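pasting DUF4192 domain-containing protein for the record, 362 residues
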Amino acid sequence: METVRIRTPQSLLQLLPRLVGETTAPSLVALPFSAGRSGMPMVVDLPVGGAEDAVAHAIRSGSLGAEAVVLVACLAAPLGTDPLPLRDELVGVAERLEGRGIRTLELLAIAPDAWGDYAHPDVARGPLAELDLLDDPAPGVPAPVPLPGVPVGADGDAARAVAGWFEAMHRGDLDAARAAPVDALELAVALAPRLGEGPGALGVDPAKAAALAIALVDSPAMRDVAIELALDGSEAAAATLAELADPASPAGIASAERFMGVGSAPDVARLTDRLRRWTAIAEAAPLELRAPLLVIVGFLHFFLGRARTAGRCAELAMTIDPALTMAPLLRDIIDAKGAPDWVLRPQDPARPRQGSEGADAR
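structre below
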């Protein structure tokens, strides 16, 4: 679950592809709100030919419990200097929604050449180029670094190099990685940005390290360790390894709660960095081996409050490997909680984890 503050029509239109994906014009995007939080966006037909009642009914039916809505008309033709099209029809939809207890916060239009506001039809149209300029945060404040989305496979140098190492992998290499899993996983993560570049000055090939990590996380226990390394660091991961021998221990129960988003906030910079690196490894993984990587990436998205992307990772993992039980578990956690405690209630005091101390205490 992401928290985004929308202060201007421009910032809302800038976020439109992120909220609903690619939309085909002509169409009408409806973004419902309840208690200040946005709900699931929907895309319906524009109200042409007297379809105001049908469009308003579709929006009302798909946004049960909503108190307000933002409407964006995605138009196929340029706006030019002509009056905004379908103004009466769209205002009619807004009035019908108002009669059903849903007020319209914004009524906007976006076209191939410009955007407009139906509340101010005589104001000059805004060029699309201005949507690429951040007005929020304030000028001079750096924009947040964008996060990767759902990993998609790519037939590039990295994927070919990883596939080659799978064909050439020796049992001894895998046994050595299993004997020191934290070191093997950390090496793969450290070298992930160089996948496909070949061996470095020390003769270590990032693709081989990634192939070994992919083989390791086929084990549920190693997936836990990989996620723990990203979430709370090496000391917590070492504690998780010790807990695996006794799942009923208090520390083991604490780890399970941690994966459900319970406890204090993790180091966001570390978590974000690990998300990017594991995404690179997942995209280089062969399709038939990618499901466990999608689960790892999905949990990291969930920890960052990105429930929608986390859910897509879980669903794609289930499609690739229906027997992978950790994927539906992630989906269930997302459906039950929406976001971790540290995202939903960041003001809550930290809850330290039993059995760990120092910088990685939870």
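Residues 9-132 form a domain with the Cytidine Deaminase; domain 2 fold (CATH 3.40.140).
The beta strands are 27-34, 37-38, 42-44, 68-74, 103-110, 114-117, 126-127.
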